């Protein structure tokens, strides 16, 4: 991924005119008069219409402040180059009304407009989003992001019928991005009781790379706690994931990636499942993977997708409840796998470490 390639979505909106323009970092034009727009909800199903009207009337650079509680039966369209903030998690709660069954409660404009290009940056902060799963059994995701260089921070998401946060290269009708969607942050959020995944990074191509997924709490997911189709260039660090019905963290296609210092408890199938690409090398370090609720499974599974995979697996702490596999190194579709595996503490399992033929395990240098 080159520096220039990452700038393409932003640079495409800049026109050359006869005056000199002062540009903000990454080529985005700084607005002359950004404003704070406050929207007071009435806790009625007309709130989504009022929110969408105010957002549509806003300008790039504006901060949209939402004063809850809000009740919605239509999706909220998040225009790019704007930030969206609640008064606090408790002060601004946006709830899906019974029977709305929305495919998405809040979503990037490029997702809803089926644009082949990524949306401009958005930020969503300090708000609670209630999917009301019991009242909307046919609903979809709570927050869908299809915008590059975006920030999701200090957001509480409860009761998604499907995924809590879905970061995707696909639009509502399945249109795939033709460019990249990079350089975002998902930080310090709490996501609980999702019917599918707490956080799902969906990438059918190679667009959603080089993000940061940090310091989130993911609880009681109906499938995986965190699942990434593409983890290239990502930092997945310090997340606490527990009570999942599938894998706690499933991170695919690592390429120069870091998966570290995550705290995983009480998974069903796999605690930490990662696969690496053949060209680069990645780091899996300092994760704590425990099973207190009985049963076995695999605590840390590493695969290579193609070619020769390289990874360090260092300083992880694994504690089982009498059964299961601690460290599991396999080839999958790859040719060979070289693992520097050292300083890992594995206890309470049937098989501390398992390595397939073609896997070389060393202590490193």
Automatic annotation (TrEMBL):
**Cleavable signal peptide:** 1-34
Q: Report domain Right handed beta helix positions.
A: 211-331
Membrane-crossing ranges are none
- What InterPro entries does UniProt report for this protein, alphabetically? Beta_helix, PbH1, Pectin_lyas_fold, Pectin_lyase_fold/virulence
Keywords on record: Signal
Keyword Signal carried by entry:
yes
Keyword Signal part of the UniProt annotation = yes
A Pfam family matched in the record = Beta_helix
Any idea what this protein is called?
A: Right handed beta helix domain-containing protein
């Amino acid at each position: 991924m080159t520096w220039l390639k990452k700038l393409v979505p932003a640079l495409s909106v800049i026109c050359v005119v006869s005056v000199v323009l002062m540009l903000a970092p990454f080529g985005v034009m700084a607005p002359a008069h950004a404003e704070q727009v406050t929207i007071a909800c009435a806790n009625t199903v007309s709130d989504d219409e009022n929110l969408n009207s105010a957002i549509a009337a806003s300008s790039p650079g504006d901060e949209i402040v939402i004063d809850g509680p809000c009740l919605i039966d239509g999706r909220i369209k998040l225009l790019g180059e704007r930030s969206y903030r609640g008064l606090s998690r408790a002060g601004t709660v946006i709830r899906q009304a019974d029977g709305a069954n929305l495919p998405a409660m809040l979503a990037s404009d490029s997702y809803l407009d089926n644009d082949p290009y990524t949306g401009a940056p958005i930020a969503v902060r300090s708000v609670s989003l209630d999917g009301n799963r019991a009242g909307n059994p046919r609903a979809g995701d709570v927050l869908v992001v299809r915008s590059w260089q975006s920030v999701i921070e200090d957001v509480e998401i409860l009761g998604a019928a499907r995924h809590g946060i879905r970061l995707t290269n696909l639009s509502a009708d399945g249109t795939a991005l033709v460019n990249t969607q990079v350089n975002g942050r998902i930080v310090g959020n709490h996501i609980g009781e999702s019917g599918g995944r707490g956080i799902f990074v969906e990438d059918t191509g190679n667009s959603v790379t080089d993000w940061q997924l940090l310091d989130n709490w993911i609880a009681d997911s109906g499938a995986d706690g965190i699942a990434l189709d593409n983890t290239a260039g990502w930092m997945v660090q310090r997340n606490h994931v527990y009570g999942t019905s599938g894998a706690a963290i499933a991170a695919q296609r690592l390429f120069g990636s870091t998966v570290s210092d995550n705290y995983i408890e009480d998974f069903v199938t796999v605690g930490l499942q990662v696969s690496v690409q053949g060209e680069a090398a990645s780091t899996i370090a300092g994760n704590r993977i425990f099973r207190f609720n009985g049963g076995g499974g695999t605590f840390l599974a590493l695969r290579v997708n193609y070619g020769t995979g390289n990874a360090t697996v260092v300083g992880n702490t694994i504690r089982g409840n009498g059964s299961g596999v601690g460290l599991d190194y396999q080839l999958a579709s790859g040719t060979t796998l070289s693992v520097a595996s050292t300083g890992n503490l594995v206890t309470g399992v049937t098989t501390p470490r398992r390595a397939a033929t073609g896997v070389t395990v060393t202590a490193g240098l």
